[in-house]
Design goal:
The chain is built from 10 helices and 16 strands. It is α+β, with helices and mostly antiparallel strands and 491 residues long. It is rod-shaped and about 160 Å long.
């Protein structure tokens, strides 16, 4: 199937090429014949330009202003005997035919246009000019002409058609016979040589093209590793390079789609599980309250209601963070950057977390340069980043631990560090810490205070700012998250 398709394409090009050769060959023959005929007529006119003058020199066509038909007939017949291709006409001053010698006396015009005649006389026959053919109205022939004068006044003209109708027919026959016998062979040889060379060139071109078509069809049929070998630049190889780049892009997009589909399925499964857990708790305790409402003591009822409330808080937080992460991943959030003092933002956030830290006897401290650092970023998004990092540190820092938020500035950037004295993160799990729900190949165990989405949100927000978050951790010593924001310079 592939070979027939490729050979069909090849023979279509051959047919087109052959047709073009026929057209060009026909045009060449037509132009050559016409130019040859014109050249022959021009040479005939130049060689015989003085015939009309010679006739006037041999005979006096007019005697005392009257046409001497006897004398003119004799000399004109004498000229016709010498050169039978000539047609001789005597014209009056207005171009009317007064007398003539022509084969079979077949003359259809009564007068001849004098404009070409006067032009011929003025240029002395050096210019190629065609005039009326009295025997064939509407056709034009090369001629010779001369004025007949008395007392320096033109009273008539001698008009000689240099190629009579019979001569033209004979010359056309000879010319056509010459072209057919001599030129036809040369044209045929040239045509066949050009055709063979053209077919060879087309075969060499389509040979590489057929290879490309074969590889493209392999790629089309699902062989994603199919690539066109590239030997050197230019021509067909540029096409090969373009196809290979396109194929790599398509394969990459397919892999991305597969990865995104796997992530989507994983997310749906995780979300379903995380939503099911608090909903099951809420449902179970509400059902218990309804069934045993008269049997429960006030402390038991308060305990159940507290558990229900905590589950609703967890459910609400999970939904909010899922919605926030979805918008970040869909690039629906843009950073509205403005200058602000990062120390003031950190100070306000630490005050909000002070109560939670004191409940676990955790020291929450800040340390920064005395000079306030003005950064250029989205204040609300950076606040969200710091909130998630401090909240994450509080969850994993044991009692009597310490959390520090440090600020250090350089010439162009301000670095923010959030450190804790928690258990640290195993080395093999660090590359996956910013993935939602996962650390390494293990799912994060979600409690009432952990959704597993906080660090994923942090990474996405900083990516919007073109900022990278760094992580360093040691087991049993703690973990440090750090990132840099550009300083704002007043212009």
């Amino acid at each position: 199937m592939k070979n027939s398709s490729s050979s069909g394409f090849f023979w279509k090009i051959v047919a087109l090429f052959t047709g073009l050769l026929f057209v060009v060959g026909f045009a060449y023959v037509f132009i050559t014949v016409n130019l040859a005929e014109k050249y022959a007529q021009e040479r005939n006119q130049r060689l015989n330009a003085d015939i009309a003058k010679n006739i006037i020199a041999e005979v006096k066509p007019y005697v005392e202003g009257q046409l001497d038909t006897t004398a003119t007939d004799d000399i004109m017949h004498h000229m016709m005997a010498i050169n039978p291709s000539l047609e001789v006409y005597i014209l009056d001053a207005a171009g009317k035919i007064l007398n003539y010698v022509a084969p079979y006396k077949k003359v259809k015009l009564e007068s001849v246009d004098l404009v070409p005649v006067e032009d011929f006389i003025r240029t002395d026959g050096e210019k190629y000019i065609e005039g009326d053919d009295p025997r064939n109205p509407g056709q034009y022939k090369v001629f010779s002409a001369a004025p007949i004068k008395e007392n320096n006044v033109t009273i008539a003209y001698i008009y000689v058609v240099l190629a009579s109708e019979e001569y033209v027919s004979a010359s056309e026959y000879v010319l056509n016979s010459y072209v057919l016998k001599l030129g036809g062979r040369a044209i045929l040889i040239t045509f066949l040589s050009a055709l063979l060379l053209g077919i060879l060139a087309l075969w060499l071109i389509t040979k590489n093209l057929n290879k490309i078509i074969t590889i493209v069809k392999k790629f089309q049929s699902g062989e994603m590793s199919a690539r066109i070998p590239v030997k050197e630049g230019g021509g067909i190889n540029d096409l090969a390079i373009t196809f290979n780049d396109m194929a790599d892009t398509i394969v990459g997009n397919i892999e991305n789609l597969k990865s995104m589909e796997n992530l989507r399925r994983e997310l749906v499964g995780n979300v379903s599980h995380d939503l099911r857990t608090p909903l099951s708790v809420i449902h179970g305790y509400i059902e218990t309250l309804m069934i045993k409402q008269n049997q429960l003591t006030d402390p038991e009822r308060d305990k159940y209601l507290k558990i229900i409330l905590e589950s609703t808080h967890k459910l609400k937080k999970l939904v909010e963070e899922l919605f926030e992460l979805s918008k970040l991943e869909a690039q629906q959030v843009t950073a509205q950057k403005e200058p602000f003092f990062i120390q003031e933002l950190i100070h306000d956030l630490c005050q909000k977390f002070e109560l939670l830290a004191s409940e676990k006897n955790i020291v929450l401290k800040t340390a920064h340069n005395p000079n306030k650092s003005l950064v250029f970023a989205d204040v609300s998004l950076i606040e969200r980043v710091l909130q998630n990092l401090i909240d994450n540190a509080l969850k994993f820092t044991p009692e009597n631990g310490e959390i520090s938020v440090l600020v250090d500035s350089s010439d162009q950037y301000v670095e923010i560090q959030v450190s804790d004295t928690g258990p640290g993160i195993p080395k093999e799990q660090i590359p996956y810490i910013f993935d939602r729900y996962h650390i390494g190949d293990k799912r994060v165990s979600l409690d009432n205070k952990n959704t597993g989405l906080g660090l994923a949100i942090v990474k996405k927000i900083l990516e919007i700012h073109n900022v990278t978050i760094n992580l360093s951790s040691k087991l049993d010593k703690g973990t440090t998250f750090s990132f840099q924001l550009p300083q704002y310079e007043n212009s």
